[in-house]
Amino acid sequence: MRCLVVDDDETCRKFVIRVMERISDCDIALTGKEAIEMVTKSFGTGELYDVIFLDIMMPVMDGKQALSAIRTLERRAGLQDGWGAKIVMTTAMGDYDTVRHSFHNQCDGYLVKPLSISRMEALLRNLKVLGPNVSLRRNEDGESSVATPRDAGMISRTKNMATPRPGDPETT
After folding, report:
1. 22 lies in a domain?
2. Which of 32, 42, 75, 154 is deepest in the core (most CB within 10 A)?
3. Range of the domain at 85
4. How far apart (Å, rounded) are the C-alpha atoms in residues 12 and 53?
């Protein structure tokens, strides 16, 4: 599985990479413009991204603009809606208008910061990116508890939003 993490905040970026590198190869972009360049390059190599974590508030080009541009690139490449990367917006902005706008522009999921492993795992499972035997958590030995590494699916286009829960111990 290939993952692109797009976030200008180092702490959030490192958290997502630390969680996702257990099951995927992760690339990094600091701006929406860099993300578009990387997605364009992936079409050229044929190694498309399975999931993209996309922050909204970034310099140069924000996540909303990048989301729209990525979906346009996918359509131009001949991908039908729902068959491109699963794009998860990761942001501190949980207001109704921002969430609605993101889903209107075809994001697949929405996580409000601070992020947590449990909410990431639940969302990715709902998006069919994680199979039933895959976990993003580590066991007591510090080893990944992934039973089927590289278990990725591009099946449905479920719309999901997860918000932080008070007392969630696995947040960034």
Report:
1. yes
2. 32
3. 2-162
4. 10
